[in-house]
Automatic annotation (TrEMBL):
Residue ranges occupied by any CAAX prenyl protease 2/Lysostaphin resistance protein A-like domain in the UniProt entry: 122-209
Transmembrane segments: 16-35, 47-65, 85-102, 123-141, 161-185, 197-219
Pfam family, one: Rce1-like
Keywords: Hydrolase, Membrane, Protease, Transmembrane, Transmembrane helix
Protein name per UniProt: CAAX protease family protein
Stretch list, region Disordered: 224-244
Domain of life: Bacteria
Biological source species: Flexivirga endophytica
Transmembrane recorded as keyword: yes
Length: 244
């Protein structure tokens, strides 16, 4: 009988791994600063754009070092329609969880912390920034980083999910960490199924848009029922709620 062979990941350092690690090291504190910016203020908008630029730069840099052939997908249904449907279904799951979680003050307050950027600022601008950062996250995590994991012989879906959750931990919001874990898993599976980064981008964008529309009424309603449970706004937050 032949001897058993064991697959050992290629964990030796190389330029691709270094660029990916550097992007994570830069993007993590940038995410923390963006989320913790004064609610609805210009600092949040600027930092969100800077964060999106960092994820994009990391993805482009990895591609420059380790070029990968890119072809437009021929089956648009697989990379656009199916992820969009999956994103809509995910919205339903998260909505159900939010309806239950909003009954708990701790969970409701953590959700409100994130939604305050939309409630105390311009919803169209915040929505645009959410879609931008969501798309660029996928370009890096399910695009470049996914390929780096494969290059190192690591499981792509679980590796990118764990790293995305680790980065999100910097926000200090456990609800965001939980959401990133669930969303990253689905996005990774979409990437694995379609072999295209377009699918996870579509999934993330649809989910982000849906959450911005669905969650505020749920959180607002529960906050009205339980007044005083939400923490006071950060100093420097814009007070009016503007929808345009």
């Amino acid at each position: 009988m032949g001897g058993l062979t064991m697959h050992v990941p290629k964990l030796r350092p190389d330029p691709v791994t270094g660029v990916a690690a550097l992007t994570l090291a830069v993007g993590t504190p940038m995410l923390r600063r963006a989320i913790r910016s004064p609610r609805g203020g210009t600092a949040f908008r600027r930092r969100a754009v800077e964060l999106a630029a960092a994820w994009t730069a990391g993805a482009v840099a990895v591609r420059a070092i380790e070029p990968a052939g890119f072809e437009l997908p021929t089956d648009l249904r697989a990379v656009v329609l199916q992820p969009a449907v999956a994103g809509a279904a995910t919205i339903g799951v998260f909505t159900g969880g939010a309806l239950v979680g909003a009954r708990l003050p701790f969970v409701r307050d953590r959700m409100a912390d994130v939604l305050d950027h939309a409630r105390r600022g311009s919803l169209p601008i915040v929505a645009g920034l959410a879609l931008l950062t969501g798309a660029t996250e996928e370009l890096f995590f399910r695009g470049a980083l996914y390929d780096v994991a494969g290059h190192l012989g690591l499981p792509e879906v679980s590796s990118t999910t764990v790293l995305h959750m680790a980065v999100t931990t910097a926000t200090g919001n456990p609800m965001l960490v939980l959401a990133s874990g669930l969303l990253s898993t689905l996005a990774g599976l979409e990437r694995a199924h379609t072999d295209s980064v377009i699918a996870p981008v579509v999934l993330h964008v649809v989910w982000s848009a849906g959450m911005l529309l669905v969650l505020p009424p749920i959180v607002n309603r529960r906050s009205d029922i339980h007044p005083g449970s939400h923490p006071r706004p950060h100093r420097g937050s814009a007070s009016p709620i503007r929808r345009s």
